[in-house]
Design brief:
Chain lengths: ~270, ~350
């Protein structure tokens, strides 16, 4: 009786995942593996080997890799500070870091465009102060900057979560056994926070790899990431077959990072939010 | 006995304006099994953490082996701690856990391997080297925590309620294990607990604490038989604590009746607290007792019957192997040397607080 009721409750989610996850996924595979006349082909997928596509994939991998590394380097100390704050303002501090996420992603990125432009807010101020201006907009640096800005909370939160869960007595035990602060960090804190790090890396790397908005707005149309290429195939060129084929290639990279997460984060410890 | 290994001088500590330890003085001898005993919040764990180096006292000094170590960080102290919830490193196997301290000290691999074998043998867990902590029971994890501490050959082992999370039978077994370990290792144990039975079983010396003050220091026998105040009497075992008047030397008036006792030097007609252990009360025929009353409750406890006798307006707790049914009129008799006279607490701070059961 109870079992049936529980099953009934899950129905909306079943329909949801069929309608919005499974069917679209199947359609991507259908388009990606067929040509315009409906014949089965691998040419769309293999199209990634074309220099122009391959280059955009490599750039996307490179930029998202660099952003992920910088995010990690920025986030770890930040998460440690947040996890060790004992005052009552802890909640507020975390809120401040999460707050930008409540604003529209497009708006935030547009705001950075306005700030970073050659004649933008930052350069106007710099010029006023007779300082050298920044020539950063429409360069890979601006894209990396945008990625870091947008995805940093996704790195901070899972690391913060695992750090909070580490029993303080474990750290005391390490000190008790003769480990100084640095040894305690590398032998206890860091290994125990690996699930959070892996989860954070995935949560930054995957959206960074697939983004086309950040590269569009901050990179001009000069730097094409694989996300941009796919977007253009769907919108400008109306070539759904090629777009889907390239999406399948991208999916492989995402699946690889998902599997890595699953291996390191068996207990779901690092899952954020 | 041997010399003082640890000396706490005028230690005070407060958290958020709440005084946890007040001007505490305590010394601990070499090879002693010392238990800090008291209810939660009495300052016993804080004392242990100050000795271990995890807390810094607001005032006072910690002297270890003649040296002031008050400011020395935990990792430089020659003592090791067994934590309440074991605190084993979950990302390391048992051998790596035990080797942690030795690896940091850069000991050779063969030395470490020998030590691991020796320690596992000592705690009766041979062959567990490659197991992960999560796969062990609570009792086994606790033994590993002890093994991890003792391989470093500390002069003092600090134990913070190490048996608190274990079930009763295991706890009793571990008590004997700890006594055996202490004798084999020949080092000082400082043990924190709120369990009076644990304290009585294992300790050479018990330090009874309450509200940041030491209430009494002594051997288990002294603490049990001659509690210095009502708090100690109430905390250690069952007792009848009665407001009484010391008429003169060797005579005390309890609830209007005069009892002979052996204490002297309290003065004449002084208000005192009297402690009588329930097993020291003899139930006799009403006319033979010093006072008499009626049995109101009876519970069979296995070894003895626990009875309550209403006499002169006080519920006397009595343990006896002889059964008296509810409603029976009985007399109460107490041997003079079983009446323990204590001064009333001088200040409010020493006032006995309600003990949580």
């Amino acid at each position: 009786m109870k079992n049936k009721f529980v099953k009934l409750l899950s129905l909306p989610y079943v329909f949801w995942s069929i309608g919005f996850i499974i069917i679209p996924l199947l359609m991507v595979f259908y388009y990606g593996l067929t040509d315009k006349s409906g014949r089965l082909t691998l040419s769309n997928v293999l199209n990634i080997a074309l220099p122009v596509h391959f280059k955009s994939l490599i750039i996307a991998l490179l930029l998202s890799f660099v952003s992920t590394v910088i995010c990690l380097l920025l986030s770890y100390p930040l998460a440690m500070i947040l996890a060790n704050v004992k005052s009552k303002s802890k909640g507020l501090m975390i809120l401040i870091f999460v707050l930008p996420m409540w604003m529209n992603f497009l708006l935030r990125t547009l705001a950075w465009q306005t700030l970073l432009e050659n004649e933008g807010v930052i350069n106007t101020v710099l010029q006023f102060l007779h300082l050298p201006v920044l020539k950063i907009i429409n360069t890979p640096y601006a894209i990396i900057f945008g990625m870091i800005y947008n995805f940093l909370p996704f790195m901070v939160l899972p690391i913060y979560n695992v750090l909070c869960k580490i029993d303080n007595n474990l750290l005391n035990a390490a000190r008790d056994l003769g480990a100084n602060e640095i040894q305690t960090f590398f032998k206890v804190t860091l290994p125990l926070s690996v699930p959070g790090i892996i989860s954070g890396i995935t949560m930054v790397f995957v959206p960074a790899l697939t983004t086309f908005v950040i590269s569009d707005l901050l990179g001009g149309s000069k730097i094409l990431l694989i996300g941009n290429v796919i977007e253009q195939e769907f919108t400008l060129n109306s070539n759904w077959h090629l777009g889907s084929g390239l999406s399948i290639v991208l999916m492989i990279f995402i699946i690889i990072s998902m599997i890595t997460t699953a291996i390191f984060d068996k207990d779901g410890e690092g899952s954020a939010l | 006995m041997s010399n003082k290994l640890i000396n706490l001088e005028n230690i005070s500590k407060s958290y958020d304006n709440h005084l946890v330890l007040d001007e505490m003085n305590l010394y601990i001898r070499e090879n002693e099994f010392v238990t800090l005993l008291g209810p939660s919040g009495c300052g016993k764990t804080t004392t242990l953490r100050i000795i271990g180096g995890f807390e810094t006292p607001d005032t006072g000094k910690v002297i270890f082996d003649g040296k002031d170590i008050t400011k020395l960080p935990a990792y430089k102290r020659q003592l090791n701690t067994v934590f309440q919830k074991y605190a084993l490193f979950t990302h390391m196997n048992i051998a790596e856990n035990i080797a942690f301290g030795l690896k940091i000290k850069n000991k050779s691999k063969s030395y470490i391997d020998d030590k691991i074998k020796y320690a596992l043998k000592l705690v009766n867990l041979e062959g567990y080297e490659n197991r992960m902590p999560d796969s062990l029971s609570g009792g086994q994890q606790q033994r590993i925590a002890i093994a991890r501490a003792i391989v470093n050959e500390p002069k003092v082992l600090l134990l913070d309620e190490p048996l608190g999370a274990l079930d009763l039978k295991l706890r009793q077994d571990m008590q004997y294990e700890l006594i055996r370990l202490k004798n084999e290792l020949g080092i000082t144990f400082i043990y924190v607990t709120h369990d009076q039975e644990e304290a009585l079983t294992m300790s050479d010396t018990i330090v009874v604490m309450n509200q940041g003050y030491i209430q009494q220091i002594g051997t288990p026998e002294m603490i049990y038989n001659e509690p210095e105040n009502a708090f100690v009497a109430d905390f250690i075992g069952d007792s009848n604590i009665i407001d009484s008047i010391m008429v003169r030397d060797e005579l005390v008036e309890i609830l209007g009746a005069k009892f002979a006792c052996v204490d002297k030097g309290f003065g004449e007609n002084v208000h005192v607290d009297v402690v009588i252990r329930p097993e020291d009360i003899e139930l006799v025929k009403p006319e033979e007792g010093t006072i008499h009353g009626e049995v109101t409750h009876i519970i069979f406890k296995g070894v003895h019957y626990e009875m309550e006798v209403m006499a002169n307006g006080f519920e006397w707790l009595v343990h006896s192997t002889k059964m008296y049914p509810v409603g029976e009129k009985v007399g109460i008799k107490v041997d003079p040397f079983n009446i323990q006279i204590m001064n009333k607490p001088a200040s409010e701070d020493e006032e006995a607080v309600q003990v949580e059961e």
